[in-house]
């Protein structure tokens, strides 16, 4: 059954989830978001870097009620994360599910992926390459990009200035920017999967 949706031009960013392998300019972005009254969820090393930089965050594990587990393989694969990304704003059924399950809207995802191709290029052994296959990251990118009507998805440090410029005046993102970012996210995840597939074929 089709879900009726409508395009919303400007969406205020109230809650962001940040989980990155590239920590460049991370604290700068975090401080900017805090200045715009954005609440930040984060994981692992990203959370540590933000806290050390003086950025107030909430651990994803605190929000979900589940610890990071299995040596970091499972961090963000949880209904309270993906429900917050995929819920259609204004859909009564979705909003009821969110209320019943303590799910909060997530308006911005900032994720860059484990450096799989760089790991392979170093000549790393099979098991090391396997551990550098990102699962949670692509899942969040795809969820956010699918729901780009309401969620902005940032995949690269190079996109931080664009995001901050967009949010500078009123803390909002435009539909046109969210669509552009969604396209970039789907391109990235597609390329990532091809790189993994090609590597497996070579083994």
Relevant terms:
203 residues, two-stranded antiparallel sheet, 7 strands, five-stranded parallel β-sheet, 10 helices, alpha/beta, Rossmann fold
Structure description:
This protein is of the alpha/beta class and 203 residues long. The chain has a single domain, classed as Methylglyoxal synthase-like domain (Rossmann fold). Helices cover 50% and strands 12% of the residues. It is built from 10 helices and 7 strands. It has a 5-stranded parallel beta sheet with strand order 4-3-2-5-6, sandwiched between helices. Strands 1-7 form a two-stranded antiparallel ribbon. The radius of gyration is 17 Å and the shape is globular. It starts with 10 loop residues before the first strand and ends with a helix. The relative contact order is 0.16. The mean pLDDT is 89.
Q: Write down the domain tally.
A: 1
Terminal CA distance reads 42 Å
Task: Give the proportion of residues in helices.
Answer: 40-55%
Low-pLDDT segments: none
> What is the CATH class?
Alpha Beta
User: What is the percentage of strand-forming residues?
Assistant: 5-15%
Q: What's the helix-strand series? A: EEHEHEHHHEHHHEHEH
The CATH level-2 architecture is identified as: 3-Layer(aba) Sandwich
Per the principal axes of the C-alpha atoms, what is the gross shape?
Answer: globular
Mean pLDDT score: 89
Order of strands in the sheet with most strands = 4-3-2-5-6
Task: Provide the CATH superfamily.
Answer: Methylglyoxal synthase-like domain
Q: Count of helices?
A: 10
The name CATH uses for the topology is Rossmann fold
Q: Characterize the main sheet.
A: 5 strands, parallel
Protein name: Bifunctional purine biosynthesis protein ATIC
Subunit structure: Homodimer. Associates with internalized INSR complexes on Golgi/endosomal membranes. Interacts with INSR; ATIC together with PRKAA2/AMPK2 and HACD3/PTPLAD1 is proposed to be part of a signaling network regulating INSR autophosphorylation and endocytosis.
Keywords: Hydrolase, Multifunctional enzyme, Purine biosynthesis, Transferase
GO molecular function: IMP cyclohydrolase activity; phosphoribosylaminoimidazolecarboxamide formyltransferase activity
């Amino acid at each position: 059954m089709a879900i009726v949706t409508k395009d919303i031009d400007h969406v205020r960013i109230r809650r962001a989830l940040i989980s990155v392998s590239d920590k460049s300019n991370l604290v700068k972005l975090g401080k900017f978001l805090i200045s715009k009254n954005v609440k930040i969820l984060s994981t692992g090393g990203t959370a540590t870097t933000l806290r050390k930089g003086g950025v107030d965050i909430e651990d994803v594990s605190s929000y979900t009620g589940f610890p990071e587990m299995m040596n970091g393989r499972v961090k963000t694969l949880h209904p309270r994360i993906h429900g917050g990304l995929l819920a259609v704003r204004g859909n009564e059924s979705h909003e009821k599910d969110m209320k019943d399950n303590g799910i909060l809207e997530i308006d911005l995802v900032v994720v860059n992926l484990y450096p799989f191709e760089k790991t392979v290029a170093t000549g790393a052994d099979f098991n090391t390459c396997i551990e550098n296959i990102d699962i949670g990251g692509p899942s969040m990118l795809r969820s956010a990009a699918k729901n780009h009507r309401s969620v902005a998805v940032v995949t690269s440090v190079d996109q931080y200035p664009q995001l901050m410029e967009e949010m500078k005046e009123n803390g909002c993102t435009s539909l046109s920017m969210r669509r552009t970012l969604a396209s970039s996210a789907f391109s990235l995840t597609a390329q990532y999967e091809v790189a993994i597939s090609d590597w497996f074929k070579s083994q």
